[in-house]
Amino acid sequence: YQRRVRGATPSTMADCPPSTTNDTEKPPDPSPRSPSGRSSRTPVALAKAAWCDETTARVDGIAEKSGSGRALKIKRELSSLVMLGCREPVRAHLDETPPGGWRHGEKPNYDMANLLYLKGKTANHEVGSVEQIVEDLIKTWEFERSHKVSEKDHKSAHVDRFNVSANGGKVFTNAEANEVGNYNLLLNDVSTTNPELFPPNTPWMDSHLIFNRAFPAFPWELTAVTKFEPAATQQNFEDALQGGDMYCEFSWRHWGPFLGKFLRTDGEVNLGNGELIEMHGTGWCVVTKHPEYGFQLCRTHLDFDAIPFMQALAGDQEFDPEHIRSLCPVVGSQAEGTCPVPGLSLIHI
């Protein structure tokens, strides 16, 4: 978890040509290499990743209409970044109308999320790499789980084998996870230990509105792959999956400008003032390849400490960002070798 204030230096737009980097910002020494041999960091310091769109008004959990003035501005800025060579995340199956219908009546618009992602992410992944494929796959799973009514229409998750858990808690089947929603399952431990931060059995729609009202978007990035089996390179990654499943361990980051409001369980409302709130964690997944739908998740587990994140939204807690960055996101220890994900304690998150 990190909390930064508005006005921090914006980051260089990741995945754009080197010529777009501000000449006054000299890149640091190359970062540690990922297991696939490619750098998983942008050429700017992580401390410069704080960014907040000064034109973004407070939000109330309602999607922008495609023809509105703000939506058009977001679309133009996003298009300009793509023209410069930036790569938007690919959420597969987005343009396919699911037989079970859209949860909100129409397909979602990810322009704002993609814009904040490109302007605030800290990792560059080569197209076709394990990092890029797994990141896009998890983004697709999040999109389908949030917007397609029936889990049978979620092509990013194996319909029979998929299950998901967080922080060593309950393992949800595909149907169970779809019924309760991602926030309820991912914050299941918080609702058990700290119900004043996230009440148990929060209705599906309410659980999403809690965060939609707080952030205009809350991008997610895979920051590094720390292990994958069987070993594969960009050239043979898909071939490796032909023989069976792939196991992948990774680190990740969630972030967004707190420009909206957070409704506390005591009835009070905490208003954000543009702080960039971040959350870091680790995870692992099992990936397979469907002959028709492409890459699919069979098993997903995430580890993170959500309590500081929820306390920040409620206005109850402030933390030293540099201290939080030095902690293992799973066990909270600064000691080498204690992180349960091999090699992760060596990565500066």
Which properties best describe this structure?
349 residues, alpha+beta, single chain, 10 helices, globular, 9 strands, disordered C terminus
General description of the model:
With 349 residues, this protein is α+β, with helices and mostly antiparallel strands. It has helices at 69-83, 111-120, 130-147, 174-180, 182-186, 188-193, 204-212, 237-242, 307-314, 321-325; strands at 2-4, 163-166, 172-173, 220-229, 246-258, 261-263, 269-271, 275-290, 294-304. The strands form two sheets. Strands 1, 2, 3, 4, 5, 8 and 9 form a seven-stranded mixed sheet that branches. A two-stranded antiparallel ribbon has the order 6-7. A hairpin with a 5-residue loop joins strand 6 and strand 7. The model is unreliable at 1-15, 17-66 and 323-349 (pLDDT under 50).
Q: What shape does the CA trace take?
A: globular
How many DSSP E strands? 9
Number of helical segments with 4 or more residues: 10
Radius of gyration: 19 Å
Low-confidence stretches: 1-15, 17-66, 323-349
Proportion in helices: 25-40%
Order of helices and strands: EHHHEEHHHHEHEEEEEHH
Strand content: 15-25%
Question: Structural class per helix/strand content?
Answer: alpha+beta
Task: Look at the structure and give the mean pLDDT.
Answer: 76
Largest sheet: 7 strands, mixed
**What is the straight-line distance between the termini?**
11 Å
